[in-house]
Design goal:
Number of helices: 8
Order of helices and strands: HHHHHHHH
Number of domains: 1
Largest sheet: none
Structural class: mainly alpha
Radius of gyration: 18 Å
Strand content: under 5%
């Protein structure tokens, strides 16, 4: 059973994530439009000299709190536990490691992608385990459908990026808005939406654990 401290840690981590990125966006030297500007734009010192620290602090706190939550409350869920632990570790490291590192010019981008995918998979798998309990046969269609929702923004982000490459568009930026390119083709839009979906599912999992939806 999840302890109150683990529940509180996850809640604090999610709050730190959004507050950190919110402060980073507020400190951005020019207009920040989340629909066309990625999260990583907030974390570069040269792009956001007065706010990058807020963003990185939010990621580190969220990553550490997420690891604590996993180690104290998600043990025994096999692949979901490993995936979430790897995701939160990558999240913390992507904000802490210097750039470049070991010949990799931007290691935080690799780690951020790892965190993005690992947390997505872990949340989806853990949600399925919570929803499928006590169900069988056709009753599993609902758990499968709902637990697949965290995967949707990832798939759509990949599709949007594929479109951008095939259309020979430069990396997504606020210039896309001026050109009239729909935000639905923007990787940034789906990245932010994914974070919102993960947050909603994680809060549900934490609250559900406290009320016994999982064994």
């Amino acid at each position: 059973m999840l302890t109150p401290r683990a529940s509180a840690a996850m809640a604090i981590g999610l709050l730190a994530f959004w507050m950190g990125l919110g402060m980073a966006a507020r400190s951005y030297p020019s207009e920040y439009d989340w629909r066309y500007m990625t999260i990583s734009s907030l974390l570069y010192q040269d792009r956001n000299p007065h706010g990058y620290g807020w963003g990185r602090a939010g990621l580190v706190i969220c990553g550490v709190c997420g690891l604590y939550w996993v180690l104290r409350g998600v043990r025994g869920h096999g692949f979901a536990t490993v995936s979430l632990a790897a995701g939160y570790l990558a999240m913390a490291l992507c904000a802490l490691l210097p750039s470049p590192l070991f010949g990799i010019p931007k290691p935080h981008e690799v780690l951020a992608l790892m965190a993005f995918i690992a947390v997505c998979v872990g949340v989806s798998r853990l949600s399925f385990a919570a929803l499928v309990k006590g169900r069988s046969g056709r009753q599993r269609l609902f758990p499968i459908t709902v637990s697949s929702l965290p995967l949707l923004p990832v798939v759509l982000a990949a599709a949007a990026q594929t479109y951008a490459v095939r259309a020979h568009l430069s990396w997504v930026s606020i210039a896309w808005r001026a050109r009239g390119i729909s935000m639905y083709w923007s990787f940034a839009f789906w990245e932010w939406l994914a974070c919102a979906v993960y947050t909603a599912f994680l809060l549900w999992l934490v609250l559900g654990e406290r009320h016994g939806i999982r064994s």
